[in-house]
Write a structure and sequence with these properties.
The chain has about 180 residues and is α+β, with helices and mostly antiparallel strands. Helices cover about 30% and strands about 25% of the residues. The chain has one domain. It contains four helices and six strands; from the N terminus they run βαββββαααβ. A hairpin with an 8-residue loop joins strand 2 (about 30-40) and strand 3.
């Protein structure tokens, strides 16, 4: 069985920001976006999750915030979140490629700048990540803006279908089998 790693864009629910008027007002930013690398058949420890966060980072013992200015920080393998709505496959990586090569490419993408116009956030970072992965041959070539439109439609549909069910939806945006 071919167990090459899959490249996914991950989309996460952001509580009230993903609902109602906020969803319309915020557009893509109504959701949190990231990148997941996972073999077809996997255990959680086989998955690599990459994203950005500007959230508070309290020390587990002192509760002192290590990110008081809410700067954007690149994260690799952040805690798996129960707010994951779905995964959209955008490519495959052969088993000969070291995960460190993917990490290096994604880590080199500039983090969003505060008060930039137009606004920068996890959405703009994921769009840059997709472009970098396409340039490396780790993601298929496609129009990223059209993909983002499809992604938000997928997230909206998944969110309305959730109904409290703890499953993660998956869809394939490539020409290959999932």
């Amino acid at each position: 069985m071919n167990n090459n790693r899959r490249v996914f864009v991950s989309i996460y629910h952001r509580g009230g920001l993903s609902l109602g008027e906020n969803r319309q007002r915020l557009g893509y930013s109504a959701y949190h976006w990231g990148i997941v690398i996972s073999p077809k058949v996997y255990k959680e420890q086989d998955c690599y999750i990459f994203d950005l966060s500007d959230a508070a980072r309290p020390d587990p013992e002192t509760r002192v915030d290590h990110n008081p200015n809410h700067e954007w920080i690149f994260r690799s393998n952040p805690t798996v979140s129960g707010s994951l709505l779905g995964l959209i496959m955008i490519g495959k990586i052969s088993n000969g490629v070291e995960i460190s090569e993917i990490w290096t490419r994604l880590q080199s993408i500039p983090v969003p700048q505060r008060n930039a116009i137009p606004e920068q956030n996890c959405v703009t970072w994921v769009m840059s990540a997709i472009q970098a992965l396409q340039g490396s041959g780790f993601a298929e070539q496609f129009d990223i803006n059209k993909f983002m439109d499809t992604g938000i439609e997928f997230a909206n549909a998944t969110l309305s279908d959730k109904g409290g069910t703890p499953t993660v939806a998956k869809t394939n945006y490539t020409t290959r089998k999932m």
